[in-house]
Design a protein that fits this description.
It is a single chain. The radius of gyration is 24 Å and the shape is globular. The protein has 445 residues and is α/β, with parallel strands linked by helices. 47% of the residues are buried. It has 13 helices and 24 strands. Strands 4, 17, 18, 19, 20, 21, 22, 23 and 24 form a nine-stranded mixed beta sheet that branches. The structure holds pyridoxal-5'-phosphate. Pyridoxal-5'-phosphate (PLP) binds next to helix 11. Pyridoxal-5'-phosphate binds next to helix 11.
Length: 445
């Protein structure tokens, strides 16, 4: 397993993260346990900010909180000077409860409800990323009720789609998100918005994909967005003050993943921007990006206790852990790949190839197919790396499995930032109607 951030093998031959021995973390907090390397999260935040500072452009780096949205994370994001993207009332509530400055919150989503829009207007958030015509008119009406114009970016689909090494340029994009550049709907929404009294058009937003390892897609998007900006100014007399280029910067999950250093992505995005805009005598807008995975992904490690085995001679050996698709649905959803090691025997040589199974009642509940490990025994501690993004965020209670705790580790200190769910939490929202209530006398407990 590749050792990210502060992860290292300590003198006892155990995996240590943030100066904390993982066997001690497991004993203290139980397993499964999400362990987040706080120093690495902060380092990633700073890499984005530093790269933009170098560019000399005005900027905002907005952490896409959907990757991992808890109050302690919002505190770190604020301390590091980033902005924050939310896509639901739940994420917005989390940020506000953490005291995150509302003017640095951006609200995304293709179906924001009237209640969510009201909540965001009441909070005074910095920007709505408007996705469709229904939302535009709803927002105009609700902002009108408050008598204050809402700041707006329009999500456009620039006809560039990027995923890992592939990027494609498409004429018209078949996507549930945003206004298409190619078919003119992006143009029409700006035209329409410029006539609405309670819509303040800041600019446009484009997000071309996720886990991207190349810069070409971003460069293509920049070019298309700028061409659009120039046309819109000339024909509609609307000048963009903000251009948001989204997230999607890749990380290394497994060997063979080849992400670029963060500064390379930002350099590619920013290097041509000044000259492009200047060429058209266009005031250079503020440039925003929205990294999620690349801020928290490689900072997370999940610790599991190994329980049972099933060895099918000549076929494969299954090693089962005390979690699975409930704490990490990504392998089942996307066939995502992960690396692992025995955290309590981290310096022992690998001896066998096994597959890591979860404990849910689904054959598809597999965390890793074919991973090299020392000969594992019941009670050994398995560490799976790169679980910081879209793991806790996507965790479920399937099979009524309790969601794990999350701890932040830094300089030898470990702090719980999300408590492990209790059995009380499991039934906490259950209601037994009177007509189904078991008579008191018949109760066995
Ligand atoms: C998901 C998403 C992001 C973050 O993507 P990452 O791959 O985690 O960086 C940013 N912006 C938008 C609009 C998104 O949907």
């Amino acid at each position: 397993m590749y050792l990210h951030g502060t992860s290292q093998i300590n003198g006892q031959g155990r995996l240590q993260i943030g100066g904390c021995d993982t066997t001690e973390l497991a004993a203290r907090f139980g397993t499964p346990l999400y362990v987040m390397d706080e120093a690495l999260i902060r380092q990633r935040c700073r890499e984005f900010v530093d790269a933009f500072r170098e560019s000399g452009l005005r900027f905002q780096v907005a952490y896409a909180s959907k990757a991992f949205c808890v109050m302690a994370m919002c505190r770190i994001v604020e301390e590091e000077g980033l902005s924050l993207d939310v896509v639901s009332e739940g994420e917005l509530h989390t940020a506000l409860q953490a005291g995150f400055p509302p003017e640095r919150i951006h609200f995304h989503g293709n179906n924001k409800t009237p209640d969510e829009i009201r909540m965001a207007l009441d909070a005074g958030i910095g920007c709505f990323v408007v996705d469709n015509f229904v939302e535009l008119h709803l927002l105009n009406a609700l902002a009108g009720e408050k008598g204050q114009a809402a700041k707006v970016l329009f999500r456009i689909t620039p006809g560039v789609e990027a995923h890992t090494h592939d990027y494609i340029s498409t004429g018209q994009e078949d996507s549930k998100f945003g206004f298409d550049l190619g078919n003119g709907s992006a143009y029409r929404v700006i035209e329409e918005a410029s006539r609405l009294p309670y819509i303040d058009v800041l600019g446009v937003h484009s997000h071309i994909g996720s886990q991207i390892f190349e810069v070409e897609g971003f460069k293509m998007a920049v070019e298309k967005v700028i061409g659009f900006a120039v046309k819109v100014r000339a024909e509609l007399n609307v000048t963009f003050r903000v251009v948001n280029l989204g997230g999607g910067f890749g990380i290394r999950y497994v060997e063979g993943d080849t992400p670029l250093p963060i500064k390379e992505y930002i350099k590619a995005i920013t290097e041509d921007i000044s000259s492009y805009f200047s060429r058209h005598d266009y005031p250079i807008p503020e440039i925003w990006v929205e990294p999620g995975r690349s801020i928290v992904g490689d900072a997370g490690t999940t610790l599991y206790t190994i329980g049972t085995f099933k060895d099918i001679p000549g076929v494969r050996k299954y090693v089962a852990v005390d979690g699975g698709m409930t704490d990490n649905p990504r392998p089942a959803l996307y066939e995502s790949k992960y690396e692992a090691m025995l955290a309590n025997r981290a310096s022992e040589p690998n001896e066998e190839t096994v597959s890591i199974a979860g404990k849910c009642c689904e054959s598809g509940d597999m965390l890793i197919w074919d991973v090299e490990l020392p000969r594992a025994e019941s009670g050994d501690l398995l560490a799976v790396s790169c679980t910081g993004a879209y793991n806790y965020a996507m965790a479920s209670n399937y099979n009524r499995i309790r969601r794990p705790a999350v701890v932040f580790v830094k300089d030898g200190q470990a702090d719980v930032v999300v408590k492990r769910e209790s059995l009380g939490d499991v039934v906490g929202n259950d209601v037994v109607p009177d007509r189904l209530r078991k008579p008191e006398a018949a109760r066995t407990v």
